[in-house]
Each structure stands twice: as C-alpha cells, then as structure tokens.
Specification:
Helix content is 51%, strand content 11%. By secondary structure, it is of the alpha+beta class. Bound molecules: iron/sulfur cluster (SF4).
Length: 474
C-alpha cells in the first residue's frame, strides 16, 4: 500500500502547473541523478527532451519547456528565487547552451532539442523522454511520467518504489476512507490526530511543526502577493489580474507591512455577509494569478487548483475563528492532505487522466473535509463533507484556453472554495448514517467518470472552452 505524506500532497513549487511544470522539473532532476549514478554525467555533450501527449499539447502554455530546462540546470523549484527564472531561460536561449546540473555546459538549442510529440505514450498521458549524447554517440535515455500533483514515476516503477521504506513505517496505512474511519474509531482519534501519528513515524514533531507552518506561510505570502499585484498576466490571453481590484475595494485603511500583519488586519476588518464570498474569491484569485505568472505556490493537490485550500483556510481564520492559530492551521493541512491522498490512491489527481474534477474537485473535497473538522465535525462528517464537495464536481472537464492555466482555471478556484465551505456546512448538519454516498463510492465514481471522459477534455486544449473561444479575439 502506498503511504503518502501530507508533504507529498502539499508541495512548495513554482507555477503554473503541477503535472506540466513541477512534475517535468522534478523528472529532469531525477534524470540528472541517474546520469550521476551511472557515472556518465561528465561525458554528456548534448541532450534532447521529447514531450508526449498532454505535456506536448499544452506544454507551451503550461511552461513545460521552461520547467525541464530549469530542472536540468540544477534549479530547485522549492527554493529558486522566482525572479531568477527568466534570467536562467534567457541565458540558455542566448548562449544556445545549458549548464547541466548548474555546473557543466552542454550544447542546447531549446527550439530543436525540446521536441513536442503529439502522440501519447501508452502508460500515461504525460510522458517525457530525456536523451543524452557524447558527440554522435547516444549515451543514455530515460522516460518519466508526470502523474499529477508533481508526482513523477517510471513505467517500471509505477508505485514509486523509492518510497518503500516510508510505506513500511506508517502505523496507520490508509488506502480508503473506510479504513481511515475505522482507525479513528479504534484509536478514538480525530483525522488530524491520526495523520499526525503517521507523520511522526517518518519525521520529528519539530520538523512536522516547522514544515506545516512553512507550507502555510508560503500560501499566505502567495495570497498577499496576488492581492497586491496588478496588471495583465503573461501568455498572450490578456487576462487582467482581478484580486488586486477586489482586495483594494474590500480592505480597510488599517496599516500593515507583512503577510502576517495583513492577516491580522483583515481579521479586524468588519466583514458584511455579502463580502464573505468576495473575500474568499479574492484569496483564491490571488493564488492562481500568482501561479499563472510562474510565481511560488503550494501544490494543493495541484498548481491549477492551488487557490482552493488557502482560500478556505483564510475563510476559517478571518470569518469563523479569530482566535485560531498555528494549531488549527496544522490541523487543517493534515486533514486536507489525507483526503487528497485517498483521491490519489483511489482515482487520480491528474487532469490529463481525469479532467478538472481531479484538480478543482479534489482540492474542494480536501478543503471541505479540513474545514469540517475545524468546525467541530466528527471524522464521519469530515468524509461526508469531502464527498459532497466532490459529488458536485463530478464530470468537470479540463479545457484551458490557449493551454494556459488561466481561463477557466483561475476563476474555477473561487467556485471550488465556495463549494467546499458549503459542503462543510451541509456535512455538519448531516447525520452520517443518513448520507447516501460514502466517500469511497464518490472516489470510485470519479475514477470511472475519468476513464469514460473523452481525451478532448483531459488537459489537451482540444475541446470545450479551449476551442469555443477564438484566441485572436482575446
Ligand atoms: S481547467 Fe482545471 S484541471 Fe484544467 S488546467 Fe485549469 S484548473 Fe487545471
């Protein structure tokens, strides 16, 4: 059984896409490791990357080409200063060479050496092959698959066997919601308490505390940047940033200088009923505008859906509970991570495999479950909340206009957040015994729906809004 940590589900990275940016970036890093392990790193004189399927069809809009170049250059998506990214890419284009692993120059012409192949590899919709040469002689090639949420696997290793060690150490291995609920009952624990026990088996308590707060602070900073940045998003669609205008209208005139002070300021702002929806939408818009501009975000569970969880957690902090602090933030993230991992194991979090239900739908379910626990829900009610949120995203297609993670993606995060809040409220008023659809059933239904969905609606930009809207009109 695959044991997935909360930090696998909530990864710090760079936008705009977890499957098309973060995954290929990580694949490039893994390829570098393979070259070093085989002692052929120093022999490489040139290299080529073949992108297949969805990585090819929406790769330019999703910055897949930039991601592989950054990964091969030795930049870490978690830590590289985002303001350095354009400089690294400009240097590769101007010099027609790439500093492999940040140390060794190799001949590299992005226009010729990154090949966009329209065909799909049989194993997964997001395939990529790295090939290196010494002179005319091919040294080595390796194929990776980006399976959503920044996860990367090899065909011969589909369950990511590198994590075998971690698998064996979780005291409460969970594949399905029924198992999660059984452990909670048996141990008399909440979902977050159970997740904490699992995390403690692989990390110190101090590390869990610090990393969860690092995740949260990245989310908070992302919302802060999005709410304070105006202008047009890159990519050619001429999408105007909206979080700035909405935020400007909503905020009072209390002073602040940092994201943390900003949060406290909003808490002091009187929020009228009508404005609640606007605030939640503003937080979600802010994250996904930062994501669309290749900013730093937390994959939750993907980059395209990165705004839902921060927006719902902000809702809790700003509207529901002004006294909440680190404890509640950590609790929220742990429940969200667990719900997300159940969807990953039982279905998919890849839009290339399941459409947008796998991104916004899953993020909404994660947020709904987490909010429900913070608002006093039992473990059973938490799973009811997650189920309700997904139930009303079933069949949602992925059809990004121009292959960019902008329309409908940015706005769709606001919808996922609002549905999550509603789902949590509905679940709190529900006796789980009367709930007709268990969470595991909706996970399975999502997967069956994903398999039936036409490829046009799976992150290919070959159907839906992506073909209905004429790019020249934008
Ligand atoms: S439509 Fe949904 S799944 Fe597709 S790129 Fe946008 S947010 Fe991601």
């Amino acid at each position: 059984m695959e044991c997935i940590s909360v930090f696998d589900m909530l990864k710090i990275g760079v936008g705009p896409s977890s499957s098309h940016t973060l995954g290929p970036w990580r694949a490039a890093e893994l390829f570098l490791k393979e070259l070093r392990d085989r002692n052929i790193f120093d022999q490489v004189s040139s290299l080529k990357i073949d992108l297949f399927g969805s990585l090819s069809l929406t790769g330019v809009g999703h910055a897949t080409d930039l991601a592989v170049m950054l990964g091969l250059s030795g930049a870490d998506p978690e830590y590289v200063p985002v303001e350095d990214i354009s400089g690294i890419i400009d240097h590769i284009n101007a010099s027609q060479s790439l500093l492999l692993g940040g140390t060794m120059p190799v001949v590299f012409n992005p226009k010729e050496n990154i090949v966009f192949n329209r065909n799909f590899l049989p194993f997964h919709a997001n395939g990529m092959t790295f090939t290196v040469q010494y002179g005319e002689h091919e040294l080595y090639e390796s194929t990776f698959y980006s399976i959503g949420g920044g996860f990367v696997v090899k065909e011969e290793n589909p369950d990511n066997q590198e994590k075998e060690e971690i698998k064996a150490t979780f005291p409460f291995p969970i594949e399905k919601a029924t198992e999660l609920l059984a452990y909670c009952k048996e141990q008399n624990m909440s979902i977050s308490e159970l997740v904490y026990e699992n995390e403690k088996s692989i990390r110190s308590e101090e590390e869990i505390h610090n990393e969860l707060l690092r995740v949260w602070n990245t989310m908070l900073e992302c919302m802060y940047i999005g709410c304070h940045t105006e202008g047009i998003l890159p990519g050619g669609l001429n999408v105007r940033r909206r979080a700035y205008d909405t935020h400007s209208k909503l905020k009072g005139d209390l002073p602040y200088n940092t994201p943390q002070e900003w949060l406290q300021t909003i808490r002091k702002t009187k929020v009228y009923f009508r404005q609640i929806l606007k605030w939640v939408s503003c937080f979600a818009l802010a994250v996904n505008e930062v994501n669309a501009s290749l900013g730093r975000v937390v994959t939750a569970p993907t980059n395209g859906s990165a705004g839902v969880i921060p927006a719902v957690l902000m809702y809790y902090l700003v509207i529901e509970n002004h006294k909440a602090g680190d404890k509640e933030i950590k609790q929220f993230l742990m429940v969200a991570g667990e719900i997300g991992s159940i969807f990953k194991k039982g279905a998919t979090i890849s839009a290339a495999m399941g459409g947008c239900q796998a991104e916004i739908g899953v993020s909404s379910a994660m947020a709904a479950g987490a909010l429900c626990e913070l608002m006093g829900g039992t473990p059973e009610q938490v799973t009811v909340a997650a189920e309700i949120a997904m139930e009303h995203h079933l069949g949602l297609t992925c059809d990004p206009i121009g292959g960019l993670v902008q329309v409908p993606c940015i706005e769709r995060n606001t919808m996922g957040a609002i549905k999550a809040i509603n789902a949590a409220e509905l679940a709190l008023d529900t006796d789980p015994k009367n709930a007709k659809v268990p969470l595991d059933k909706v996970v399975n239904t999502m997967w069956e729906t994903a398999k039936d969905m036409n490829n046009k609606y799976k992150e290919t930009s070959e159907g839906g809004l992506a073909v209905a809207v004429n790019l020249s009109d934008c």
